[in-house]
Amino acid sequence: MDSISLRAKAILARQVNHECDCKSDNENYSDDEERSSKYRFVSALSMSGGNGDNSYSTNSLLQKRVLSKIKTVLVENTKEMMTNLDFPKCIKIADLGCSSGPNTFLAISQIVNTINVFCKECNQNQPEIDCCLNDLPSNDFNTTFQFLTSFNKKLTQEGSCFVSGIPGSFYSRLFPRKSLHFVHSNYSIHFLSKVPDGLEKNKMSVYITSSSPLSEYKAYLNQFQRDFTTFLRMRSEEMVSNGRMVLTLIGRNTTDDPLYRDCCHFWTLLSKSLCDLVFEGLVSASKVNTFKMPFYDPTKEEVTDLIRKEGSFQINDLETHGFDLGHSIEDCSLQPHRVKSGQKEASCIRAVTETMLVAHFGDAINIDTLFNKYAFHVSQHATCTVKTTVTLVVSLIRS
Ligand SMILES: C[S@@+](CC[C@H](N)C(=O)[O-])C[C@H]1O[C@@H](n2cnc3c(N)ncnc32)[C@H](O)[C@@H]1O
Q: How far apart are the first and last CA of the chain?
């Protein structure tokens, strides 16, 4: 294909996806081509499917706990949405980044039950509810839909509820204009659409660490700004006026140093584990140098600033909660707790990264060995108390 038709194809692809464009077409085209061949593994981004020992479905207790913490936010926003929209006869809900497993139905059942109970309390007819579960096309939707029967049993009131899967990136348009009443997304929008360029100077590290050059932080922040703004713009087109959106994502506490991440940050421990494999001659350093996470942990100020600048949403509330991967273990009283916790934390990170690691390293890496190292590094940080990672919960009203 000649360069003109390639460029035309790239422009067409962006138009179809309605992506945000801050640079010229030529610049975007060459940047994206270079990055997508360098960081090809990003297209494999999806949680480990199925329901085996290493699957996301089995290792998503941390995300489940987060969902239980935000219950009140979901309930309040759902009730306010119903009142402000004067009890519509048909409600369309979307869970973005639903993944494979039961968590998506926890959130959806919370919203559906609130709508039905609230309608009864207010002597209103129960609406028909359209529940759309979105994730990337590579997501294991089959595993998710196996939880549909238990979801139906959890619904407290009789009512019509229709569940469907919507494959596609939430950085593109997914729904018709002005069709959505309520949008929810848990632990998904900290994933970027791509790895930014300009990270070459930081060797042997999959993400920003305290020793990264400042340019690395700027590159990640810039990509997050572009992606989050696109996300808001797409949803602003899809949502009805006075519709609600509740977003929960991993963020960081503000410190004077934008590079600061605590020594036991989950990506720092993954970098350390990969380095161990390099020192043991099991993986090449050059391969590790080109594995970077498509992820950014914003501060609440960065999130607020972008919402204000995009302009379609009013911030109803923004909360910060603690984050503890150690809570991905069910019984913290077990001894030796830290060892068990180390394995659980390793399993949690493995379920999120294995598809990308395998896509990048192929047979060169033994995933079991890598995550045994990870569990060991967790156990070495048993006494760390300073944590910079937090969970951000923001609720928005479509103006
Ligand atoms: C950690 S999981 C969270 C899943 C679920 N919401 C929960 O609470 O357990 C993050 C999900 O976001 C999805 N994701 C990441 N980027 C996405 C994108 N651009 N569009 C749609 N889904 C995306 C991933 O595939 C993954 O399933």
A: 45
The per-residue DSSP string of 4-15 comes to HHHHHHHHHHHH
Type and span of the H or E element at 288: helix 285-289
Say how many domains are in the chain.
1
Ligand 1 pocket residue status of 186, Cβ below 6 Å = yes
Could you tell me if 62 and 341 are in contact, meaning their C-beta atoms sit under 8 angstroms apart? no
348 lines ligand 1 (CB under 6 A): no
Higher pLDDT, 147 or 16: 147
Domain ranges, residue 385: 23-398
Cα distance between residue 46 and residue 351, in whole Å? 9
- Give the separation between CA 82 and CA 382, rounded to whole angstroms: 46
pLDDT at 256: 86
Specify the CATH number for the domain of residue 29. Answer: 3.40.50.150
Cα atoms found within 13 Å of the Cα of residue 302, Cβ hemisphere only: 25
* Structure tokens belonging to residue 257: 């140093």
Cα of 218 from ligand 1 centre, angstroms? 24
Radius of gyration of the chain (CA): 21
Chain segment 338-348, per-residue pLDDT in tens: 556 788 899 99
Condensed to tens digits (0 to 9), the pLDDT of residues 164-181 reads: 999 999 999 999 999 999
Give the residue carrying structure tokens 């572009």.
Answer: 226
Q: Is the CB of 19 under 6 A from ligand 1?
A: no
Whole-number Å distance, alpha carbon 117 to ligand 1 midpoint, is 29
Q: Which residues have CB under 8 Å from 60's CB, separation 6+?
A: 47, 99, 101, 103, 348, 351
5 lies in a domain?
Answer: no
Q: Which of 196-205, 208-217, 355-364, 367-376 has the lowest mean pLDDT?
A: 196-205
CB 65 within 8 A of CB 330: no
Residue 171 covered by a domain: yes
- The pLDDT tens digits of the residues spanning 18-54 come to 333 334 434 444 555 555 567 999 999 999 999 999 9
Asked whether residue 333 is domain-assigned, the answer is yes
Q: Give the per-residue pLDDT at 38.
A: 78
User: Which of the residue ranges 223-232, 241-250, 281-290, 303-312 would you say has the lowest mean pLDDT?
Assistant: 281-290
Q: Hey, whose CA ends up nearest to atom 11 of ligand 1?
A: 97
For the chain, percent helix, then strand, then coil, each to nearest 5? Answer: 45, 15, 35
d(CA 163, CA 373): 41
Does 114 fall in a domain? yes
